[in-house]
């Protein structure tokens, strides 16, 4: 094994150009941490915000990347021998310590999720954070067969994954997009009704499908849409805020005035399914993708050398689904 590796380092807060490819020493294992040969890393908008300087606890330089898939290269855990295929998500990965934008990542054993698969690495890289978040969000909503689900931010990677999971379980799905050109991708992902979100017409369009409103709204847009989502869902229905495409803070939020009586507002954080808690869920997702029940929804794969272009592509909202970086 080489003693050096290539990594995309965020040298300071700023635009995509602050991501620089550098030669670095391969991290040495230590108690409780194992070295993973990274085979793929999904890109996430939280990394974009960290790069922009909106994560005050993150110091630079830092190798970003809140998830990766790969092979254990040097283990300190007897239950995870060298050669084990693993995924890792969250747990301050790419924030408090270096993450997945590199050829190797030194990760806490508690974050490593072993699984078996026949899928290629670029497909696997699109699954962990996205599908664990989608599954956790649907569980938080309590979505069941025959339910009516509206996904706001449908062409995001989590939106596409949620559609794939829900359609596989007999849920009726509507999803929003701002771009006509993305309608076909949503339909292919299992969406029954595609709503082009032009702002004021969304409520009328949703109620034209379901006059009382959907039973559930998965809000991946975030703060700017949450109050609106509470009035889109049927009275007594549930809104789950998972995404933050428009930011994290709802200004001047007044729960009694803004939440219709009986309507429920909840949230899901993907950190809840990190490590051993998420292992069984991830293995189930991988099996469903292998069986063709779920779609991996890979939009585009970039090499590590193209990390600046990958971030620019994500920042310009060009993707329909997941953007993946393959370091090797």
What does it look like?
There is one protein chain. This protein is globular. It has 328 residues and is α/β, with parallel strands linked by helices. It is 27% helix and 26% strand. α3 (128-141) crosses α4 and α3 (128-141) packs across α9 (276-290). The protein has helices at residues 45-52, 121-125, 128-141, 157-167, 183-188, 202-209, 226-232, 255-258, 276-290, 307-315; strands spanning 4-10, 19-25, 33-42, 62-63, 67-74, 85-89, 104-108, 113-114, 148-152, 172-177, 193-196, 216-219, 238-241, 264-267, 298-303, 322-326. The chain has two domains: 4-126 and 296-326, Quinone Oxidoreductase, Chain A, domain 1; 129-270, 3-Layer(aba) Sandwich (Rossmann fold), CATH 3.40.50.720. The strands form three sheets. Strands 3, 5, 6, 7, 8, 15 and 16 form a seven-stranded mixed β-sheet that branches. The mean pLDDT is 92.
Q: Layout of SSEs?
A:
Blueprint: E1 4-10, E2 19-25, E3 33-42, H1 45-52, E4 62-63, E5 67-74, E6 85-89, E7 104-108, E8 113-114, H2 121-125, H3 128-141, E9 148-152, H4 157-167, E10 172-177, H5 183-188, E11 193-196, H6 202-209, E12 216-219, H7 226-232, E13 238-241, H8 255-258, E14 264-267, H9 276-290, E15 298-303, H10 307-315, E16 322-326
Parallel strand pairs: 9-10, 9-12, 10-11, 12-13, 13-14, 15-16
Antiparallel strand pairs: 1-2, 1-4, 3-5, 3-7, 3-16, 5-6, 6-8
Helix pairs in contact: 3-4, 3-9
């Amino acid at each position: 094994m080489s003693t050096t590796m290539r990594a995309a380092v965020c040298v300071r807060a700023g635009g995509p150009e602050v991501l620089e490819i550098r030669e670095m020493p391969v991290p040495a294992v230590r108690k409780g941490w194992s070295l993973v040969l990274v085979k793929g890393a999904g890109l996430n908008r939280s990394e974009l915000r960290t790069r922009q300087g909106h994560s005050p606890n993150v110091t630079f330089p830092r190798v970003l990347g809140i998830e990766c898939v790969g092979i254990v290269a040097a283990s300190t855990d007897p239950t995870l021998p060298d050669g084990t295929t693993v995924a890792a998500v969250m747990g301050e990965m790419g924030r408090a310590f270096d993450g997945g934008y590199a050829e190797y990542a030194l990760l806490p054993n508690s974050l490593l999720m072993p699984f078996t698969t026949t899928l290629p690495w670029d497909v696997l890289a699109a699954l962990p954070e996205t599908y664990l978040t989608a599954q956790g969000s649907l569980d938080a909503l309590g979505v069941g067969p025959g339910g009516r689900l509206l996904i706001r931010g449908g062409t995001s990677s989590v939106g596409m994954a949620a559609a794939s999971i829900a359609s596989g379980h007999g849920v009726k799905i509507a999803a929003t997009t701002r771009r006509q050109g993305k309608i076909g991708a949503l339909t292919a992902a299992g969406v029954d009704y595609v709503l082009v979100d032009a702002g004021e017409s969304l409520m009328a369009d949703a109620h034209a499908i379901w006059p009382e409103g959907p039973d559930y709204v998965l809000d991946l847009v975030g703060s700017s849409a949450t109050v609106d989502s509470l009035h889109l869902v049927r009275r007594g229905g549930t809104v789950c805020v998972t995404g933050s495409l428009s930011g994290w803070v709802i200004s001047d939020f007044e729960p009694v005035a803004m939440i219709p009586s009986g309507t429920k507002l909840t949230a899901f954080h993907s950190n809840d399914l990190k490590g051993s808690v998420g292992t069984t869920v991830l293995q189930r997702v991988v099996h469903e993708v292998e069986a063709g029940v779920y779609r991996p929804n890979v939009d585009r794969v970039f090499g590590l050398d193209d990390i600046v272009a990958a971030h620019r592509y994500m920042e310009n909202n060009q993707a329909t689904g997941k953007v993946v970086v393959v370091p090797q």
